[in-house]
Amino acid sequence: MRVKSMISLRSVLAAAGILAVMGVANLAQAQQSTWDQIQANGIVRVGCAPSEPWYFKDPANGEWSGIGPGITALLAKELGVKWECVETTWGNAVAGLQANQFDMMVALDATPKRALAIDFPSGTLLYYAVGVLAQPNLKIEYWADMNNADTRVAVPLGTSNDRAISDMLPEAAFERTKGSAEAIASFAAGRADVVGGASLWLMMQNRALGGKGQVIIPKPASASTTSIGIRREDDKRWRDWLGIAIDFYYYRGHTAKVYKEFLISRGIDPATAPGIILEDM
User: Fold this and answer.
1) Burial of 274 (0-12, 13-18, 19+ CB in 10 A)
2) Helix (H, G, I), strand (E, B), or coil: what is residue 106?
3) Which of 6, 206, 243, 264 could covalently link to 123 via disulfide, CB atoms 3.0 to 4.6 Å apart?
4) Using an 8 Å Cβ cutoff, are 150 and 144 in contact?
5) pLDDT tens across 110-144, in order?
């Protein structure tokens, strides 16, 4: 009985030792930085929220294009790795980054609230103007023209423009939708008088609706920059490298080229589209 007990005890201790080693290995993997993770896996994952021109998923073949995938492809080429889209929503961007569902979210605006939870590289990805897609019968010149309880405004929940437009239109009636598609659907069904967001995105949505609305940049004009959201971590190599890369792409014209090539692929003349370079706005 004593020998059997000793063997049993040794088995338990051995099993405990294996579990402890596995626990340390899992902890090390969980704490692996984004930079090391990309190098080890040979792939960079970008969160993709369907909303042109940022992200477009071709329904015919499932392939992604747009500013987000275009920039990601440039970054992956620099790193010598592959890239992939992980479909998500703007509202889930911060949580998705924190949960390590993807390595970055291109075209995520750096706001004070988001900066409490995630990190952003320095540098400028691009500029855009905040506007509205309005029903054709509306006459809008100023933000104040919409600041009343009779104006129904649809905005995708969790976007930086949700907060920006809410601040400018505190008296309006808001419908905050799960995603971009739902906001446009509300507008198309006549439940919303205007949809708020980046003028680039609104232009694409109005095109998809057959030009039934009107894209307006109300006065005073509100311009903003957008960035790349990443996880907050002690290892800053990923953040610092991204800052250098996006500045390089912006000032060397690569970002503008990505934008123009996407517009052309969607049958749009770049000369008729809103600019993304400050000097062109």
Assistant:
1) buried
2) strand
3) 243
4) no
5) 999 999 999 999 999 999 999 999 999 999 999 99
In the block, which residue shows the tokens 């996006």? 246
Domain 127-223 has CATH 3.30.980.10: no
Answer whether 36-125+226-280 and 127-223 agree in fold. yes
The mean-pLDDT minimum among 8-22, 140-154, 222-236 falls in 8-22
Residue with tokens 């006549």: 190
Q: Show the CA angle centred on residue 221, arms to residues 70 and 248, nearest 5°.
A: 30
| Number of Cβ atoms within 10 Å of the Cβ of 102 | 23
Interhelix angle 237-251/34-41, rounded to 10 degrees, is 80
Phi, psi of 131 (to 5 degrees): -145, -165
pTM: 0.79
- What residues contact residue 32 under an 8 Å CB cut-off, 6+ apart? 40
Task: Assign domain 36-125+226-280 to its CATH superfamily.
Answer: Periplasmic binding protein-like II (3.40.190.10)
Q: Where are the domains of the chain?
A: 36-125+226-280, 127-223
Q: 125 - beta bridge partners? A: none
Contact call for residues 211 and 183 (beta carbons, < 8 A)? no
